[in-house]
Amino acid sequence: MLIPTGHENLEGRRWPWITIGIITLNFVIFGLTHGRMEDEAGRIAQTKVRILLLEAAHPYVEKSPEVVAMIDRFKASKPKIWERMQDSHRRPESEWDLEMREYEAWQANDAMARLTEQMRRNEQNSFLEKYAFFAQKRTPISYVSAAFLHVGWFHIIFNMWFLWLAGSVLEDSWGRIVYPVFYVACGAFAFHVQAISDPGSLAAGVGASGAVAGLMGAFLVRYFKTKIHFVMIYFLGFLPRFWRFRSPAYIMLPLWLASQFFSVSMVGEFGDGVAYWAHIGGFLLGTVAALGLKFSGIEKKVDAAIEQKVGWSADPRIVEAGEILARDPARAIELLQPIVAEKPDVIEAWSLLERAYWQKQDFENYRTALATLAKLHIKQKDLDAALQNFDDFVNSGSEAFPPAEWMQLIRWFESQQNWERAAGEYERYAAAHPADRMAVYSLVSAARIQLKNLNNKSEAARLYRAAQASPIPHLDWDDAISRGLREAAA
Asked: Are 269 and 199 in contact (CB under 8 A)?
């Protein structure tokens, strides 16, 4: 057994959240549907096979149009199997098969009617019939949904491992819009190729193999010379042996594709349960689409956009500023100011600026840098870092923190049930911005927390009275203030 364990480009510029999300979704769906799918797959297959066997033994039997269509497609695509089914001397599949051969005409018609009704019920009620891909009954949703269904642990584990190895780096190269569209398109095309190659198949097509094969084809184009790490597991007697080696993508991936063509030629129309043509179709589309992205210039534009967001470390000015910051903060500031003018969202540049201003004792610009950092950290949902920026800002001796960011932090304190801090910050906000309409809201909010969460009625009453005495028009708050004063006095 040959298993890939990694490759040289496994580290990306940022976390591959789309890939992680796809893998997580696959495992969640597998956990919810695995048992049900196994049960339904056996029942659906048995019904369709019995219809075919009944037709082979009693070709005169009455059939519905959908059954006729299914049988005709099967005959056309699998003539050798159909010839074997018609052989009266073949080995019976089951007791039912043996008994069915002796049916009278009326018994055969009754049996076909029952099986047809069972097939219709399966199509109406079966999860697998609705969301798996069937070559004989292709629905638009199944082209996508079937790629998120798996039939066993080995099936999903190997698919998801290959998805991680190829998908994580392709997401880093193509971004979080192009990459998932590419993935879904490869999966849908893979199912379509499988249906064209075997239109009479009765099997349910499921699994991410075709989509993952598309990523492998794209990996070959995008990382042509990258060396892939493998481990080969073999046995000497009863003892397992492991051979580890590395080989470039341009050798191993074409060999894998060749193995799929070889398998197709070996199994023929009888098949072995593996959708080799889906693998081939997905791989070829992935290769062609990756070449299109490369030579059209789309890949270069997407990569540049990602680099603009996360590629700050490539800017030599930031590197130099970090190296000289301790001994020459003025020069570091000269290097960093043009960067934040060009790219105002680069947190690392603002972080170095904040330290440089502190060393120069330039407190006005130091506080500006802290406020900007807090805003950027809030934008990234990193509220712990934003809180640290806020605390440093306050400790520098100023109460003029930007109102919008200040209010977001206060609401975060509330969500964390840090009631004392939330109440204190509401009151400080009102004191720092007395002419702001939000000052009344802040006083009422602080009073509410003191009353409801901290059970401090005297403080609540004081804050409600302060809100009541505010010169800012607050008619819409009067009822809440009066009600709060009554509760505090109770």
From this structure: no
All residues at 6 or more sequence positions from 376 whose CB lies less than 8 Å from its CB, including other chains: 345, 347, 350
Q: Which two tokens stand for residue 426?
A: 């509401």
* pLDDT one-digit tens code per residue, 296-329: 888 888 877 766 665 444 467 887 888 888 788 8
DSSP structural state of residue 248 = E
Bridge partner list, 3: 231
Separation between Cα atoms, residue 211 and residue 21, nearest integer Å: 15
What pLDDT is attached to residue 251?
Answer: 94
Q: How many residues does the chain have?
A: 490
Determine phi and psi for 206, rounding to 5 degrees.
-140, 160
Contact call for residues 281 and 257 (beta carbons, < 8 A): no
102 exposed, middle or buried (CB, 10 Å; 0-12, 13-18, 19+)?
Answer: exposed
Q: Rounded CA gap, 72 and 154, in Å?
A: 34
Question: What pTM value is reported for the model?
Answer: 0.61
Rounded to the nearest integer, the mean pLDDT of the chain is 86
Cα separation, 462 vs 444, in Å, equals: 10
Q: Which residue has the tokens 């082209």?
A: 143
Q: Which domains does the chain have, with CATH numbers?
A: 2-296 (no CATH), 315-380 (1.25.40.10), 402-490 (1.25.40)
How many C-beta atoms lie closer than 10 Å to residue 47's C-beta? Answer: 19
Confidence of residue 13 (pLDDT cuts 50, 70, 90): low
The type of residue at 188 is A
φ, ψ of residue 242 in degrees (nearest 5): -125, 130
d(CA 152, CA 262): 25
Q: Is 235 helix (H, G, I), strand (E, B) or coil?
A: strand
Say if strands 204-205 and 133-134 run parallel, antiparallel, or are unpaired.
antiparallel
Q: What is the pLDDT of residues 29-51, one digit of tens each?
A: 999 988 888 788 888 888 888 99
Q: How many helices (H) and strands (E) does the chain have?
A: 22, 5
Which residues lie below 8 Å from residue 412, measured CB to CB, with a gap of 6+? 383, 387
Confidence of residue 211 (pLDDT cuts 50, 70, 90): very high
Burial class (CB in 10 A: 0-12, 13-18, 19+), 287: buried
